[in-house]
């Protein structure tokens, strides 16, 4: 039988204590999960990056189902969050004419004192309800301004300012940029959109 001296006993106790502390530390580290960016946080950040808002005035000239030329004008508020666009049209007195909500899954149109109407396509919904359809899906890109990535487009650069677009021709529409805001990075100020068949003329002034 071997009898340890007092210093040796102390060394054994110290080594045992150190081993126990090391094991506890490693166990604690393995039990704590690593936190990275959560899916919800990443989605929120992405939605924030793709959110846009515009405020301005509109004037629309269109031909109704009886072949008569009609005009509509007023103010608009555009709210874009990810793939969803909410467009509110108001008369010159600030009263709501219609609220249009467009998403990849459905489109909804609300008129004052009426039940909301829902359809798969925002253009057909506006056409059947208002008598004209704004190109909401195209405007998501044309107001940036840039061509929509979904189809071929012809672009013309402003010869006096080669960093700005002067015109886009896409999906039967001619989009003409008449003025840009003076402040750097604030984008389009005035834009005209024309479609020849069926005839539709839209003028937008963005007040930001």
UniProtKB/TrEMBL annotation:
Q: Where in the cell is it found?
A: Cell outer membrane
Q: What is this entry's stated membrane topology? A: Lipid-anchor
- Kindly state the subunit structure of this protein: Monomer.
Superkingdom, according to UniProt?
A: Bacteria
Q: Name one Pfam family in it.
A: LolB
Query: What's a single GO CC term here?
Result: cell outer membrane
Protein family membership: Belongs to the LolB family.
Key word Kinase present: no
Respond yes or no to whether keyword Cell cycle is given for this record: no
- According to the record, the signal peptide region is 1-29
Q: What is its main location?
A: membrane
| UniProt keyword terms in alphabetical order | Cell outer membrane, Chaperone, Lipoprotein, Membrane, Palmitate, Protein transport, Signal, Transport
Which InterPro entries does this one have?
Answer: LolA/LolB/LppX (IPR029046), OM_lipoprot_LolB (IPR004565)
Q: Name one GO biological process term.
A: protein transport
Q: What gene is behind this protein?
A: lolB
Report what the protein is called: Outer-membrane lipoprotein LolB
